[in-house]
Design goal:
Blueprint (H helix, E strand, L loop, with lengths): L4 H9 L4 H17 L5 H4 L4 H8 L1 H4 L7 H20 L1 H10 L2 H10 L3 H15 L9 H14 L3 H17 L1 H9 L1
């Protein structure tokens, strides 16, 4: 049986209740990272894509008025995935295909919390190093490039902005074309 199957079913049944969903997800992530198990088995799990999609749902609920707990939960999700990225590239590639970089980046820059911004932008920089992180529209490319340009002037974010910029130019033909034409 899949390691992610039961947690996916539980998360899906709590998708409408953000607080319960986040609590269940964070508890599960903490449990996985505390266990001394072969994490690579999770990388081969047939439910990896579904689990990653569910685990990134709190990013989709993010807005300029998100509370401290929502931001803390997202930082915990980032910590989990950053650890997984180091263990197996399947986690990075899966997350890179799922997270809508344009909307998450735009929303993150509206939140006045430097620690949170640094965490999310660093996470997106990790995703941008994956060949599966592809921007699919020129409108999204333009939005991302505007966000990145604004980040170049913020010392704690400028390095991440350069990594995101370079990764997207390398792996996303639409992004590279949009940049070249602007």
């Amino acid at each position: 049986m899949s390691s992610f199957a039961s947690i996916c079913k539980t998360l899906e049944s709590n998708l409408e209740n953000g607080t319960s969903f986040d609590k269940i997800l964070i508890d599960f992530l903490l449990l996985i990272t505390a266990e001394k198990v072969d994490i690579c088995k999770y990388a081969r799990d047939p439910y990896l894509h579904q689990f990653t999609n569910l685990a990134l749902q709190p990013f989709l609920r993010l807005n300029a008025h998100s509370g401290r707990q929502a931001r803390t939960n997202i930082l915990e999700i980032i910590r989990f995935f950053n650890q997984m990225f180091l263990i197996h590239p399947a986690f990075l590639d899966c997350a890179a295909t799922i997270l809508p970089v344009d909307s998450v980046l735009q929303t993150t820059l509206l939140i006045d919390d430097n620690e949170f911004r640094r965490g999310v932008v660093g996470f997106i920089a990790n995703l941008a190093t994956s060949p599966t992180c592809i921007v699919t529209t020129s409108a999204a490319s333009k939005l991302i490039s505007e966000c990145l340009l604004s980040m170049f002037t913020i010392p704690v974010l400028s390095g991440y902005a350069i990594v995101i910029f370079a990764g997207l130019i390398r792996f996303s033909p639409i992004f590279a074309t949009t940049i070249k034409s602007s």
